[in-house]
Amino acid sequence: MDDGGVADPGRGRGGEPGEDREDLIRVERAEKVFTVRKRTGFLRRERREVRAVDGLSFTVARGEVVGYIGPNGAGKSTTIKMLTGILTPSGGRLTVAGIDPSRERTRLARRIGVVFGQRTTLWWDLPLIDSYKLAHRMYRIPDARYRENLDRCVALLDLGALLDVPVRQLSLGQRMRGDIAAALLHDPEVLYLDEPTIGLDVVSKAKVRGFLRELNAERGTTVLLTTHDLTDIEQLCSRVMVIDHGRLMYDGPLTGLHEAGESERTLVVDLERELPPIDVPAPARVVRVDGVRQWIGFPASASAAGLVAAVAAAYPLVDLSVREPDIETVIARMYAERASA
Ligand SMILES: Nc1ncnc2c1ncn2[C@@H]1O[C@H](COP(=O)(O)OP(=O)(O)OP(=O)(O)O)[C@@H](O)[C@H]1O
């Protein structure tokens, strides 16, 4: 963890066992096919179909915080765009809070909030507060509610000194916090976040993550989070969905992802003296030696205790530690396995 945040994913209201589950987002065999025309010669164009989303099904319960991850071009943004009504699906069915997004986009807009990390919805030349005043009128937010939500966002996202600053003068981190506040003034039930921490420094990332945790815990806001920053997932999400080529490859808790990717943990031992690679019980094996330190890879699903006992019985140890696999490696393995299947 890079920012010292408290990792307590899953404390939102949707993930509690035994509670009645209300599916706020439903996606059933959704498809999105784009037709692209490519120039193949003078006056010649070839039509090609891109299946950006290919038979995707999942549900998200009210109050869940779900990470939505996958490599570039996997279909994440296309899914979010269909869920907001910006894009119409080519097939299948999507509903958000019982509303078909592409048919009733305006009605849905009152129930959802959207933050695209790479773009802003704020008015570039106007002071930040003016964008909020516009949202107040556009969404017809009752005055007391607007004031309460604004005060809360200003306090938690540290926006007090920025309200009168034109948006174009804000740093990326300040603007992102401003954008998140703008998406929440009308009390959306669902918040879509597309790369909310991209390009932010460690302090800004911590602020954004802390705010999102609090929003989910206190208001039960459902969050669908697209990110390449796996710390976002580790710190915020009780569940993660992995998509590739428009299809769902994994849907479950973060811990299960390690198993799906057949990841390895590493036992790092410091010996009393330099030795050639030590003997360890299979399937564990020494993967690296540097002076007195040796790195031993073993399956993440296996217990470290037996391995530690075997090594400690045969060799004089000065120190040892167990390193968890990082998710990036796990996901890369999943993709590699699929590609070679
Ligand atoms: N408007 C469009 N016209 C044609 N092809 C498109 C269009 N939008 C997306 N695509 C294609 O659909 C596929 C999925 O794209 P999408 O933007 O959903 O991926 P992504 O997972 O969000 O990727 P990234 O992490 O790079 O943002 C890609 O092959 C992309 O080139």
UniProtKB/TrEMBL annotation:
Look up and give the membrane topology term.
Peripheral membrane protein
Checking PROSITE patterns in the record gives: ABC_TRANSPORTER_2 (PS50893)
One Pfam family name is ABC_tran
User: Which GO cellular component terms are attached?
Assistant: plasma membrane
**Ranges where the record places region Disordered:** 1-22
Tell me the keywords, alphabetical order.
Antibiotic resistance, ATP-binding, Nucleotide-binding, Transport
- Single GO BP term: response to antibiotic
The subcellular location is: Cell membrane
Q: Which InterPro entries match?
A: AAA+_ATPase, ABC_transporter-like_ATP-bd, ABC_transporter_ATP-binding, P-loop_NTPase
A GO term for molecular function = ATP hydrolysis activity
Boundaries of every ABC transporter domain copy: 25-270
Give start-end ranges for the coiled-coil region(s): none
What segments bear the compositional bias annotation Basic and acidic residues?
A: 10-22
Task: Report the protein name in the record.
Answer: ABC transporter ATP-binding protein
